[in-house]
What we know:
Low-confidence stretches: none
Mean pLDDT: 84
Number of strands: 5
Structural class: mainly alpha
Strand content: 5-15%
Oligomer: single chain
Shape: elongated
Radius of gyration: 24 Å
Distance between the termini: 18 Å
Amino acid sequence: MGRAENVINTGVTSKAAGTNKNDASAIDSDSYSLQKFFDMLMKGDTVATEILFAPVADADPRWSEVRTVGRQLLNRQCKGFVGYCVRQAAKYGIKGSRMSAVKALIDVLRLRQLQLGSPAAKLREIDYILQDFAERHEHAEWVNIPSPNGADLWHIRCCDRAMPITSSIGEATKVYEKVWENYGERARAAMSNEGIDWKAMSHAVRVARQAIELLNTGQITFPRPDAAELRAIKLGQRPYADVSQLLESLVEEVHLASAQSELPESSDPIIADSLVRREYRAQVCGS
C-alpha cells in the first residue's frame, strides 16, 4: 500500500534580484499530510504549532477536529522553538556568541604565555586549563582527534578551529587572533547597528515569546500583542546591544518555562491514530 507524501510544495517562490531572499510578492505554500502535521506538533515544530493557533478565515469543516486533536499533542519539549532561539542567541547575542568565545580563549592563551615566559610552551602544559575552558564555553570543545599517523591527539576546538596540544601556545594564539579579526569586523558593525540580520533577530524574539506563552498557558496569541516592537526590531530601529541582551534573557526564560510547564513531558501518538485512519480511509475509499 502506498504512503501519502509528507509535504507537498504547491507554491512558486520568487527571489529578489541578485539575492537568495524572497521578495515582497513571494508566496510559499506547503501542504502537510495529516500524520506529518501531528508528528511535527509532537516534536514542537514552530510552523505546525503556529498553524494550530493561527486565526482562521475560511476553514474546512474538519479543521475544528484536527485542531482539537492537535492541541492534545502539545508537550513541553518545544524543540523547534527552543532550538531556533538558542541558535539565534548564539549567533547574535553577546554572552553566547562565537566571537565572545574566541576572545576569551585568546585572553587565556596570552595570560598563560606570559606566565610560562615563552610562546614556545606547548598547549599540553596547560591542558587542564583548556579542558576547563571548553566545559564553560558553548562554542569550545576538548576533543580527541586522530592524527595523520593514526594516534589520537587531544585538541582545543573553538568556533570550528582546532589546535592539537602539540602546538605551541604562541602558534595557537596567532590562529585564534586571526579568527577574532574576522569576527571582530562583525562585532564592530554590530556596535554601530550595521550588517545585522534584523529580520532574523525579530523572528527569534517572536519565537521565544511564543514559546514562553505556550509553555505557561498552552496557547499562542495571534495577532501578536508585541507586533509593534517586533516590527521596530525588524526595521533595525532598536540598538543591537539591547536586542541581543533581550534575546539572551528570553532564551533563559524559555528554559525556565520548559522546566515549570504543566504541559506533558511527551505526547502519545495514539491520540491521533483514529482521526488519521478515518481521514485516509475516506480519501482512499471515498467514504
